[in-house]
Amino acid sequence: MSALETQISDLNTRIRHTEQDAAAARVLAGGADRDVAEIRTEIRDFRQATTSSFNAMREDLTDLRSHVDNRFAAVDRGFAEMRGKLDASAAGQQRIVDLLNQLIERGDV
User: Is the dihedral of CA 68, 71, 77, 82 positive or negative?
Assistant: First the structure.
């Protein structure tokens, strides 16, 4: 009988430890759930911030591309203007050469 009482006492002790372990496991699981919820929130916030960053960079690149395109267009216009002036100068110089050749042919030089 005393052996049976000892075994029952041991079983009661084990049950108490098991109940304490189960309670601790529930507390840990609750903490893990909160941690997962926090991580999800942080990941969502990070994703939103990253998306906003990329959208801002995309806008900046679009603005930069527009600015560069406008500046290249201005350079192209400047080159066209200079080409016109150089062509006019070349035509004027050719006229001078032609006049000099006429003078040379007539012997006036």
Answer: negative
